[in-house]
UniProtKB/TrEMBL annotation:
<dbReference type="GO" id="GO:0006189">
    <property type="term" value="P:'de novo' IMP biosynthetic process"/>
</dbReference>
<dbReference type="GO" id="GO:0004639">
    <property type="term" value="F:phosphoribosylaminoimidazolesuccinocarboxamide synthase activity"/>
</dbReference>
<keyword id="KW-0436">Ligase</keyword>
<dbReference type="Pfam" id="PF01259">
    <property type="entry name" value="SAICAR_synt"/>
</dbReference>
<dbReference type="InterPro" id="IPR001636">
    <property type="entry name" value="SAICAR_synth"/>
</dbReference>
<dbReference type="InterPro" id="IPR028923">
    <property type="entry name" value="SAICAR_synt/ADE2_N"/>
</dbReference>
<feature type="domain" description="SAICAR synthetase/ADE2 N-terminal">
    <location>
        <begin position="16"/>
        <end position="270"/>
    </location>
</feature>
<keyword id="KW-0547">Nucleotide-binding</keyword>
<comment type="similarity">
    <text>Belongs to the SAICAR synthetase family.</text>
</comment>
<protein>
    <recommendedName>
        <fullName>Phosphoribosylaminoimidazole-succinocarboxamide synthase</fullName>
        <ecNumber>6.3.2.6</ecNumber>
    </recommendedName>
</protein>
<comment type="pathway">
    <text>Purine metabolism; IMP biosynthesis via de novo pathway; 5-amino-1-(5-phospho-D-ribosyl)imidazole-4-carboxamide from 5-amino-1-(5-phospho-D-ribosyl)imidazole-4-carboxylate: step 1/2.</text>
</comment>
<dbReference type="GO" id="GO:0005524">
    <property type="term" value="F:ATP binding"/>
</dbReference>
<keyword id="KW-0658">Purine biosynthesis</keyword>
<keyword id="KW-0067">ATP-binding</keyword>
<dbReference type="GO" id="GO:0005737">
    <property type="term" value="C:cytoplasm"/>
</dbReference>
Length: 296
């Protein structure tokens, strides 16, 4: 296995953003494009871990490319190409590092809203429900158990936080004040349609997509699907054959890592604790199993 990619450095390209996982570069002479590189960094509770997950960036890229293709008729996406030989000349010295973990994409204006769709009640949504059956402005049925399927998928937006801070769930009414009533409805409709198509497909392959987060941007006023799509970083993937409501579910995503971190005496703020080799290996195996089940 090649060395994990923790950070990137491509002289001749301009680093414009370093996120929890992805590094974004502008390319001289191509102002309408960006190079998006998925590293092997992993975050949990909005904190970047000190230890990478080898091969993770390649898994995220392969899955995103698969979903861009499957969902392309629902909404336009930002992908130009993932074939490194077709990248601009300034990228060519780095193709060995970029192959399999990068995309050349259209430059967009990202929305300030995270587009979350939930088909099952889990995570922070379950924690909120236990306190009040009205969550993010939605009145949910009484008596739901952890991991229960919701009557229908719901769109629950959040505001984007700066690196190191936590995103904040908001109601649709609050979102309407930020982006307008019509835009809110358009975004919600797109997100629900994307989730339903992907959820139906994954279910045929033995995976439940409990919830997921989409990123949308704008180009000339049009909504564009951007960033990663339906990966173990942005979604909860549960094996259908082990699904049992009433408890937390085994998963193909980073919930395994979160569960380990929750067992520690750690306040979920930097610095992150060191990860034991077995936690790194088990997390990597879950990511690889997700991409195998969905794409093969």
């Amino acid at each position: 296995m090649t060395e994990p990619m923790i950070t990137t450095d491509f002289p001749g390209l301009n680093l414009v953003h370093r996120g929890k996982v992805r590094d974004m570069y502008s390319i001289p002479g191509h102002e309408d494009k960006l190079l998006m590189v998925a590293t092997d960094r992993i975050s949990a509770y909005d904190v970047i871990m000190n230890s990478p997950i080898p091969g993770k960036g390649a898994v995220l890229t392969k899955l995103s490319l698969f979903w861009f293709d499957l969902l392309g008729d629902i909404v336009e996406n930002h992908l130009i190409t993932a074939k490194v030989e077709e990248y601009p000349e300034a990228c060519q010295p780095y193709v060995d590092h970029l192959r399999g973990r990068s995309m050349l994409v259209k430059k967009t204006k990202p929305l300030t809203i995270e587009c979350i769709v939930r088909g099952y009640i889990s995570g922070s949504f379950w924690s909120a429900y236990k306190k009040d059956t009205v969550v993010c402005g939605f009145k949910l049925p009484e008596g739901l158990q952890e991991s229960d399927k919701l009557p229908e998928p719901i769109f629950t937006p959040s505001t984007k936080a700066e690196l190191g801070n936590h995103d904040e769930n908001i109601s649709l009414a609050t979102m309407e004040k930020i982006v307008g009533v019509e835009r809110t409805q358009e975004i919600a409709d797109i997100a629900i349609r994307l989730y339903q198509r992907a959820s139906d497909y994954a279910r045929e392959r033995g995976i439940i997509i409990a919830d997921t987060k989409f990123e949308l941007g704008e180009v000339d006023g049009r909504l564009i699907l951007i960033d990663e799509v339906l990966t173990p970083d942005s979604s909860r993937f549960w094996p259908e054959d082990l699904y049992a409501p009433g408890k937390s579910q085994p998963s193909y995503d980073k919930q395994y890592l979160r569960d380990y971190l929750s067992s520690l005496d750690w306040d979920k703020n930097p610095p992150a604790p060191e990860l034991p080799p077995e936690i790194i290996d088990k997390t990597r195996e879950r990511y690889e199993e997700a991409v195998r089940r969905i794409t093969e």
